[in-house]
């Protein structure tokens, strides 16, 4: 499972990890029923503390995306709601645009330009 984090992203690391795993599930990279690597392996692969990964996994468990099973590890329970995924991604896009000095109207204009090209 390949996850990457943006070291320039001001969001807390656990939120970035949560988003990366959520995107992997939503995109089908990881499917319902599939087990995730152990938290320590994920942490080592992306270069963060294991507790950071565990915090992200617990958040996704609370959202109903992951399931923890004693002795079996963590597996994907369900894909996130598509509409919710798009809303979350839109929020992230707006936050990123704001960091570069662009507002929602600028983002809408960029999307319209992309749509027409």
Automatic annotation (TrEMBL):
Keywords (alphabetical) are: DNA-binding, Transcription, Transcription regulation
Q: Has UniProt tagged this entry with the keyword Cytoplasm?
A: no
What positions does the domain HTH gntR-type occupy? 11-79
Q: Which Pfam families match?
A: GntR (PF00392)
SMART domains referenced in this protein's UniProt entry, alphabetically = HTH_GNTR
- Per the record, the domain of life is Bacteria
What name does this protein carry? GntR family transcriptional regulator
**Taxonomically, what lineage is the organism?**
Bacteria, Bacillati, Actinomycetota, Actinomycetes, Streptosporangiales
